[in-house]
Amino acid sequence: MINFNFQNTTKIIFGKDTEKQVGEETAQFSKKVLLHYGGSHVEKSGLLEDVKNNLKNAGVEFVLFGGVKPNPRVSLVREGIELCRKENINFILAVGGGSVIDSAKAIAVGVPYAGDVWDFYLKTAVAKEALGIGVVLTIPAAGSESSNGSVITNEDGGYKRSYGTALMYPKFSILNPCLTYSLPNYQTICGAADIMAHVLERYFTNVENGELVDRLSEAVLKTMISNTPVVLKEPENYDARAEIMWAGTIAHNGLLSTGRIGDWGSHDIEHELSGIYDIAHGAGLAIVFPAWMKYVYKHDVNRFVKYAVRVWGVDMCYENSERTALLGIEKTEQFFKSLGLPTRLDDVNLPEIEKRIPEMARKATEVQPLGNFVKLDAKAIEAILNLAFAKNNL
After folding, report:
1. What's the distance, CA 103 to chain centroid?
2. CB of 390 within 8 A of CB of 346?
3. Fewest CB atoms less than 10 Å from the CB: which of 45, 95, 152, 296?
């Protein structure tokens, strides 16, 4: 285990009816906020109206700013920055999932910055200050409700890039599992893949002797494996929804990164897919992660064996550890498929995908190779993406 600092300043307010506290919580930070959201789901469910009334009752003014799409766009972020400046807003309330929260974070660091907000995502600038952020979470997936990061897509060139700073930690996040009852199944399963991927990025590390975090990570994975099928059959099963919502937060709040160096190669590869093709992030991860596993597992077969045995209950084959490792990868893929997720590039409609693989590999490695568990250059990324085709799969 390596040295680490751990600090997460987000106040989590978890449970039934907790969204009714949004006005009280927001009023502690500002009397005028940008109310940032996506679109029809929060409107049709009545949540947006409830939040507005709650803010009014707490004496908090708000300026509405909707329109966030999955894989949030920098063009909308720029609009939000100008709106905050015009209206003298110093706090953003994000009502939605990871895309809305990530967009809010980008706006928050962009308002006090004299340059273009995309500079942060190009890593050519460092944020020195930011507006405050609050969250009412509607989709457990990205973990952005208590993380220090944001991912934004630039339509100009199809680039999807991340930026992180402690300034991006939300001041509070309200998590009511009941708000996820009406989620379409596809959003639920994409969220499950995203949560599991956040854990896997941290689990596959070259740092040894991190038994506690390994066990915590395995517990989160097993929680997702047992509860996701339940909510697909019983959408209003509160206990299962609550387990998934809390797992999504734990997966990405920094706890599972303590004492180790995560990989993040699969996330960066997927960003190329969704940056160009705008597919759901979780769906892209369900395709990329098993292919990445097949490409890198020989680097540390024992860690993949541990994963197979502890997470998936694979019987240890002492005569052939590679067989055990590969069975764990197969179980991962089978689980994603059982939920209804794509696990091959052939499963989704991505025009001219084979022709664009070299482009994606080049863009992904413009700054440096990807990953930490195994360093991936452009050639390696091409190989992984080609493994994700049914015809080339192991």
Report:
1. 13
2. yes
3. 45
